[in-house]
Design brief:
The chain is an alpha+beta fold. The protein has a single domain (about 10-100), classed as Gyrase A, domain 2 (2-Layer Sandwich), CATH 3.30.1360. It contains three helices and four strands; from the N terminus they run αββαββα. It has helices at about 10-20, 40-55, 85-95; strands at about 25, 30-35, 60-65, 70-75. Helix 2 (about 40-55) crosses helix 3. It is elongated and about 45 Å long.
């Protein structure tokens, strides 16, 4: 690592959360719950988050239940929330909430109107 990562102050954290409306500050961590359609979908969401975190060399705490993935982000070395936590939160949000049907292109996306195919509850 070439640059020192510093913990953000409360003002910076609150400003960062303004751009992530479904995330919250809880016990010194950025926290987000993703609701899924069941266990298989929960595992898919957890796998995506795991891949993004590993690629970013940043490791969140994930809590899984049948229909939920809870993500907790903080940085251990400065013992606080850093710019890295916000960057990973934004990337997780972008990928997990991606809906191809909302874009123009050849990818259709899952038919969310039909509960049989809806694997995550989009915001």
């Amino acid at each position: 690592m070439t640059e020192e990562i510093r913990a953000l102050d409360e003002e910076a954290i609150l400003a960062g959360l303004a751009g992530l409306p479904h995330w919250r500050l809880e016990l010194g961590c950025l926290v987000r719950d993703y609701r899924s359609g069941g266990w298989k979908a929960t595992l898919m969401v957890a796998g995506v988050i795991g891949h993004l975190a590993e690629a970013a060399w940043h490791h969140p705490v994930l809590e899984l239940s049948w229909d939920r993935v809870r993500v907790r982000l903080s940085t251990h070395s400065p013992r606080g929330i850093t710019a890295r936590d916000f960057a990973l939160a934004r990337k997780i949000e972008e990928v997990v909430q991606w809906q191809p049907a909302r874009e123009s292109g050849v990818l259709e996306g899952t038919p969310n109107a039909d509960e049989r195919f809806r694997y995550i509850q989009y915001d």
